[in-house]
Amino acid sequence: MPWGDDPWGGAEGLTILPMRRIRIQAVWDNNTYPVYYGFIESLPVMFNDTDTTTQVSLVDGFKVLSLAFVSGDFPEQASGARVAAILDAIGWLAAETDIDVGVTTVPTITLSNVSALEHIQQIEHAEAGRFFIGRDGKAVFRDRTAQVNPDLTDRTWADDGTGMSYRDIVIVCDDELILNDVHLTRDGGEEQVASDLVSQNQYGIRSSAETGIQLSDDVQVADRADVTLLRYSQPIQRLAQLIDNAMQHERWDRVLARELNDYALAIETRTATAQVSTIEGISHSWPASEWWVTLDMSPTVIEQAGILDDATYGLLDSTAILAR
User: Fold this and answer.
1) Are 310 and 318 in contact (CB under 8 A)?
2) What are the residue boundaries of the structural domains of the chain, listed by start?
3) pTM for this one?
4) Residue 43: partners with Cβ closer than 8 Å, 6 or more residues away
5) Taken in order 2, 7, 9, 12, is the CA torsion positive or negative?
6) Is 107 exposed, middle or buried (0-12, 13-18, 19+ CB in 10 A)?
7) pLDDT reading at 193 higher than 70
């Protein structure tokens, strides 16, 4: 990224100003792990009777993307190519990206002073993928099929000794995410509808409607509607959050290596739940001189949550709760 001076070398980096780059790292067993890479947003100075303090407010590359506007003509291309083209248009270095090709094609478009972040998120939504700023500062785009066969050996949390221990876990089962009547339309296309009559009979009609979907033909739009239906037509009991217990299990190498969109397995024996999840959020806190890492999680679409060949968690329709 060409904006700002490099804070990691030279006297110039000693000057702390808004939008200076900043990174947070952790060192464990002589290995350094990136935790956060972003920019200083503000440095409010506060005074009390004895000290002068400042609490630094940080932002990541999303703020840079939201403030950079793009104009120009873009051809019909793969979703990943469009994301790369938008980043290139605002001067984001290719070395600072990690972009999947994508499984969808987006249409020809002319943009006039459109936020780079806004258009990338439209592409992300059309793809049903993910776009985020990684803990190393890279702009990351993942398509909907990313990590079909994850290796969970170093990313399993459990309360029965079969994985890393956790402090707490949040299990949710509600109707918030039910959708069974999906209407999607692209510019210049016909409305595509995906419906699940079984779900409608069970929970009533739960509709959603969107226009302007950034896909190049109606076949892809219909497929995108089916993806939404697959994910949301049935409610499931889901593990929504997990607070790691690395202060006890000491596998910091596994915890600090986790990134958004990583797969993880969480096991909670009281409800006989075993869920393969994608990591949606990572936060760090330091209560009472400890270090807690909290993972926001959501069930995967591709993996089944039942543990294959396991005598307890592999029994479908009995003890295992499936995550579609």
Assistant:
1) no
2) 1-146, 156-173+236-299, 181-232
3) 0.83
4) 16, 18, 54, 56, 57
5) positive
6) buried
7) yes
